[in-house]
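Researcher: I'm preparing a figure for a lab meeting and need a structural model of a single chain. I don't have an experimental structure, so a prediction will have to do for now. The sequence is pasted below. Please return the structure as tokens so I can convert it later.
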Amino acid sequence: MKAILFDLFGTLVPNLPLSTWEQSSAAVASKLQIDTDLYQELWNARFRDRMIGQILDGDHQFDCLLEEAGLEVSIEKRSSAARLHRELLREVLVPKPETCSTLDQIVSAGLQLALVTDCSSAAPELLDETPLGRYFHTRSISAFLGVRKPHPLMYTHCLETLGLAAGECIFVGDGNSEELVGAKKCGLTTVWVDNGQHQHWHERFSPHGDHTIRSLDELLPIIQTLCTE
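Model: Understood. Here is the structure written out token by token.
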């Protein structure tokens, strides 16, 4: 094996607790002067569009939502709501306790790293403000590629950038977005991160990998075994 491709949310950083999402939604809805339940309904309906870059993060990310709701909201309030959403994203991009030490050991072993993530357009910039940014120069970002997992491009973009074949790489993810299925179809060895009760999100959840771990540091023995086969 020559490289490890990682999912981001639920893998390198924890899944966002539902209570945090609900509190954030209420705060954003208040800024936009819209009913919280209606905001969540309209926001969730646009999840795919945000993930593939059809709706970009920023002052105008709520425009179509507010138009459908029939609301006129000032740009100042839209900007304030966008800042709240950006802060939520910043808060969730905190690595799991074992993440950085695991990545350090992988790099020390001579393997390359890549990131394969479904995310909105602001996430990569915010990621670079965290300890994780320095590890991932090779990235497949759904909002920039215009597709999301399990589309083959999400994997082949990284493989081509690394100059490696799928059989030389491992994909590690928590199973959302049918990502493990997509990685396997592309020929990668797959590792499922079983978050147990902390798997707060189940978005096209398909938790089936060639190997299973419950903590990222459990990945190291698997890598060592695969590298000696």
